[in-house]
């Protein structure tokens, strides 16, 4: 038995809560995963997991061993990484997941700069607004807007995106120009709803002007769960939208959107998140440092 391989497999089984999911994320057969855990238990002469056909629970001894195994594997990766850094560039695969507008307008256009620094890091980028299971989906980190809802994740702040209220000229010709945020709730106006991936409910608009803050629900006939499609609905005249300045700017310049409610703005904090028990590899640390600097230098990020 390769003890380090068995430890890695056991740690992933605990993190995913399933032999099958662990096997999938490690790209091993389920039988091999089961055998390694059984061999580890036989070597330690202790039961780490209580297993039935329906569920799996970690024993008290298994929990204690898991916590020490995570630290030991992290120390091993640090030791190997320090030798690797002394002799060659960072390499390996990094799996990240980001919202579609962020990927299209901010991240992907800047990636040549990242690869100039780290040409041997292979990025696998998932583009979505859905809630990602970082362990089950084998994702190293996600970038999301809003306050972190998963308290079990480490959240690194990346900055704050200013939002503005906009509508297409065709919409304004039909419905008129709102002069105050409360106008968005009357019978003459429609917003485009943005669906929160976790709850399926539409997002409220929290608009601020100086010390005054108003939360507006808005009335909608279309609700969308993707940022790019949400913006497209606004450009198509389906309703009023509240989008980050960096998304709206090119459409305002082309006359496809008109900025509304002068002085009123919303703001969304951006975070990079990863599991607290997942060791931060050198390549992940390099990506965190790079994307933090990217956001800090962007003119539309506070």
The stretches of 5 or more residues where confidence is low (pLDDT under 50) are: none
Structural category: alpha/beta
Secondary structure tally: strands = 13
Count of domain modules: 3
> Which term fits the overall shape?
elongated
Beta-strand level of the residues, as a percent range?
25-35%
Number of helices: 9
> N-to-C terminal Cα separation, in Å?
52 Å
Question: How confident overall, as mean pLDDT?
Answer: 85
CA-based gyration radius: 24 Å
Sheet bearing the most strands, described?
Answer: 7 strands, mixed
CATH class of the largest domain: Alpha Beta
Order of SSEs, N→C? HHHEEHEHEEEHEEEEHEHEEH
Assigned CATH superfamily of the largest domain: Periplasmic binding protein-like II
Can you give the helix content as a percent range?
A: 40-55%
Q: In the CATH classification, which architecture of the largest domain applies?
A: 3-Layer(aba) Sandwich
What name does CATH use for the topology of the largest domain? D-Maltodextrin-Binding Protein, domain 2
Textual characterization of the structure:
With 302 residues, this protein is α/β, with parallel strands linked by helices. It folds into three domains: 3-86, Arc Repressor Mutant, subunit A (Orthogonal Bundle), CATH 1.10.10.10; 90-159 and 269-297, D-Maltodextrin-Binding Protein, domain 2 (3-Layer(aba) Sandwich), CATH 3.40.190; 161-267, Periplasmic binding protein-like II (D-Maltodextrin-Binding Protein, domain 2, 3-Layer(aba) Sandwich), CATH 3.40.190. The chain has nine helices and 13 strands. It has helices at residues 3-16, 19-26, 30-44, 60-87, 100-117, 169-175, 227-235, 245-253, 282-297; strands spanning 49-51, 56-58, 91-98, 120-127, 141-145, 154-167, 191-194, 205-209, 212-216, 220-224, 241-244, 258-260, 266-274. The strands form four sheets. Strands 3, 4, 5, 6, 11, 12 and 13 form a seven-stranded mixed sheet that branches. Strand 1 and strand 2 (56-58) form a beta hairpin. The mean pLDDT is 85. Keywords: DNA-binding, Transcription, Transcription regulation. Belongs to the LysR transcriptional regulatory family. It comes from Coralloluteibacterium stylophorae.
């Amino acid at each position: 038995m390769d003890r380090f391989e068995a430890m890695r497999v056991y740690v992933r089984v605990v993190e995913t809560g399933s032999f099958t999911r662990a096997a999938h994320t490690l790209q091993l057969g389920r039988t091999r995963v089961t055998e390694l855990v059984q061999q580890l238990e036989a070597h330690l002469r202790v039961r780490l997991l209580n297993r039935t056909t329906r569920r799996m629970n970690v024993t008290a001894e298994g929990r204690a061993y898991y916590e020490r195994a995570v630290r030991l594997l992290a120390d091993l990766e640090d030791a190997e990484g320090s030798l690797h850094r002394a002799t060659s560039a960072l390499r390996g695969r990094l799996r990240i997941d980001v919202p579609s507008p962020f990927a299209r307008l901010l991240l992907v256009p800047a990636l040549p700069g990242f690869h100039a620094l780290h040409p041997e890091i292979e990025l696998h980028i998932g583009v979505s607004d859905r809630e990602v299971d970082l362990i089950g989906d084998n994702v190293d980190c996600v970038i999301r807007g809003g306050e972190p809802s998963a308290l079990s994740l480490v959240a690194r702040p990346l900055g704050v995106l200013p939002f503005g209220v906009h509508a297409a000229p065709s919409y304004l010709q039909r419905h008129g120009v709102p002069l105050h945020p409360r106008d968005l709730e009357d019978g003459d106006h429609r917003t485009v709803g943005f669906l929160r991936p976790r709850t399926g409910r539409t997002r409220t608009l929290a608009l601020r002007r100086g010390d005054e803050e108003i939360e507006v629900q808005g009335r909608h006939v279309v609700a969308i769960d993707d940022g790019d499609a949400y913006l497209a609905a606004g450009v198509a005249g389906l309703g009023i939208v509240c989008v980050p300045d960096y998304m709206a700017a090119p459409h305002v310049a082309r006359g496809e959107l008109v900025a509304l409610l002068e002085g009123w703005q919303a703001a969304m904090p951006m975070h990079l998140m990863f599991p607290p028990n997942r060791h931060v590899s050198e390549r992940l640390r390099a990506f965190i440092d790079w994307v933090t600097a990217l956001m800090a230098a962007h003119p539309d990020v506070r």
